[in-house]
Amino acid sequence: MEQNKKLILKIGAIFIGVLLFLTFFSNTIYSFNLPHVVLEYPREGAILRTATGRGIVDFVVKDAYYAEIGGIIELAVLEGEPVSAGSVLYTISAQNSLNEDMLRLRLEKARQDKAFAQTRLNDLRSGNVEQDKEVEKARLALEAAQKELSDFTLLFEAGAIPQKDLNDKQVAVDNLVLQYQQQTAKKQNALQELEKSLRDLQFQIEEHEMQLEAGSAGKITVTAERGGVVREVGNHIDSGVYISPNEAILKIGITDENYKATFALPDNVDYLNVDDVVALTIKSRNIYNAQGEIRRLFMEEGRLKAEVRFKAEGVSGGETAEIKVHHTSDLYQNLLPLSAFRSDSYGDYALYAERVNGPFGYEYYAKRVNVWENERDNYNVAVWMYLGSGDSKPPVIINSDKPISEGDRVRIVGGSDLVEIR
């Protein structure tokens, strides 16, 4: 009987041991199947926002050249070619459609018209024309009416005349003021028209003189006034074609002046200001980190654009330039990786690991903490998080190999050395 008891106890102990072993083994297997998470404490830091943009390099200053006479053009330069001051740009062989006698007649008429306009202008300025007399007449009438108004005011204050008489006199003065202003404006308009006519006639005289000179010389040669790069040639301008007087021929970008480029930037760039310094890169010219200055910020087609001016060597215009802009925020108390930032219908939040005592030791569960976003960059987000009074920063889950939700049990990896897990 005693032996049976011992046997039963032994079998029971073995059974309990096996049961405990299986329970522990099953719990271990279960733990390995839990979501594996990596933890990180919120840290102090700043948000660094960066953005890039591309633009085409151009000259700030470009000298424009126009045809002084009509004729057949022969270009001596090509677009993109560097030139120095005094270099030949093109020649024009005169091909006047008018004969010399007709040009001389037009020149003589322009000179006579200019002399007549100058005489009229001189007379108008000196007051020797009828229009000026009308202005003087209006001025004298206004002065007389103003004196009468002053007398009427004294009479009214003395009770000698009614208010209506004073009002009527005031209306009469106002009308004379208007007439005087109209006459003065007419005189000023006449002066401006005559001055414009004189400028136009002088231009005609110079054009006819150049045509006559070119007709006798047969050809004119145009040279560069300043050194630079031939930036633009008129669309239809080519050697052997006929061009008309004052037609645009070409433009030269002046290398002694600055360069510029306009860059399109992302919508989230809201931290730039005029006069900010930025770094430029022109890879085709092996130019890196050149310093540029923002001269203008504007919206175009719904996008923010920045005009940047800079100095550089070996640039000819038309190159692609890149800029990189950045902004460092103030110091924030709670910085999280973007992978830790979550949102649902209740708002923004993060999950942290809470430690509890289990039957086989510590167990860890995902808990929610509400957060409010302040600012973010490409890697981190600065948040304000709601913590209870006296609570320390929780170890936030920044990565998981499986989807997790609040209340899920998790297994900590790669961050098991973190302390103060709540």
Query: How many E-type strands?
Result: 24
User: How much helix is in the residues?
Assistant: 25-40%
Task: Give the SSE string.
Answer: HEEEEEEEEHHHEEEEEEEEEEEEEEEE
Oligomer: single chain
Describe the global form: elongated
List keywords for this structure.
422 residues, alpha+beta, Elongation Factor Tu (Ef-tu), domain 3, OB fold (Dihydrolipoamide Acetyltransferase, E2P), seven-stranded antiparallel sheet, 36% strand, elongated
Commentary on this structure:
The chain has helices spanning 2-33, 100-126, 130-157, 163-217; strands at residues 36-40, 43-45, 48-56, 58-59, 62-66, 71-75, 82-83, 88-94, 219-223, 228-233, 242-243, 248-254, 259-265, 277-282, 287-300, 303-310, 320-328, 332-337, 342-344, 347-358, 361-376, 380-385, 396-400, 409-412. By secondary structure, the protein is of the alpha+beta class. Helix 2 (100-126) packs antiparallel against helix 4 (163-217) and helix 3 (130-157) packs antiparallel against helix 4. The protein starts with a helix and ends in a 10-residue tail after the last strand. Strand 20 (347-358) and strand 21 (361-376) form a beta hairpin. The strands form four sheets. Strands 1, 2, 18, 19, 20, 21, 22, 23 and 24 form a nine-stranded mixed beta sheet that branches. Strands 3-17-14-15-16-13-4 form a seven-stranded antiparallel beta sheet, with no helix packed on it. The chain has a four-stranded antiparallel beta sheet with strand order 5-12-10-7, with no helix packed on it. Residues 21-27 and 416-422 have low confidence and may be disordered. The radius of gyration is 44 Å and the shape is elongated. It contains four helices and 24 strands. Among the domains are: 51-60 and 257-328, Efflux pump adaptor protein, beta barrel domain (Elongation Factor Tu (Ef-tu), domain 3), CATH 2.40.30.170; 63-87 and 224-256, Beta Barrel (OB fold (Dihydrolipoamide Acetyltransferase, E2P)), CATH 2.40.50; 94-218.
